[in-house]
Design brief:
Radius of gyration: 14 Å
Order of helices and strands: EHHEHEHEEH
Helix content: 25-40%
Structural class: alpha/beta
Strand order of the largest sheet: 2-1-3-4-5
Shape: globular
Low-confidence stretches: none
Mean pLDDT: 98
Bound molecules: ligand CA2
Length: about 140
């Protein structure tokens, strides 16, 4: 089984600011945690991070027929991008949405998740552990399809 792990804008800067919201771990720590978790569960991960909406849409399209599952944190595009929602709906790959912070308890503009409408699983406000939990639960979800 193989998963594509997509992270949106500024996630590559993780750990550099707002530790009270996002913690002190870096993007490399995130990649290491997910890689370890995937290894423990026999999953092959591929990572993609971009600050560009169209590049994320391109990557989702390229995943069609290539990946068993997608784990995505679209970051700020979560709250704005119908294009990412449409791409996820188009490829129709089982997908888990992850947010490091609890977007339900933050500003009003973060309350809507367009991408989340195309996701079967949601991991909100669990910190980086949300990505690890997504790996485990997305695998279980796919196995019972
Ligand atoms: O909580 C999340 O995972 C978010 O997707 C993170 C986004 C934010 O726009 C969403 O509303 C919620 C922001 C990512 C910013 O990443 C950081 C960059 C540098 C330092 C800390 C975080």
């Amino acid at each position: 089984m193989n998963f594509l792990i997509i992270n949106g804008p500024n996630i590559n800067m993780l750990g550099l600011r707002q530790p009270e919201i996002y913690g002190t771990d870096t993007y490399n720590d995130l990649v290491a945690l997910v890689t370890d978790t995937c290894e423990q569960h026999g999953i092959t991960p591929e990572f993609f991070q971009s600050n560009h909406e169209g590049a994320i849409v391109d990557e989702i399209q390229l995943a069609y027929g290539k990946f068993d599952g997608i784990i995505i944190n679209p970051a700020a595009f979560t709250h704005t991008s119908v294009a990412i929602l449409d791409a996820l709906q188009t490829v129709s790959i089982p997908t888990a949405e992850v947010h490091i912070s609890d977007i339900t308890q933050r500003e009003e503009f973060r309350q809507i998740s367009f991408a989340g409408l195309a996701c079967q699983l949601h991991f909100i406000g669990q910190g980086l552990q949300g990505y690890a939990n997504a790996v485990v639960e997305l695998k279980e979800y796919i196995e019972q399809l």
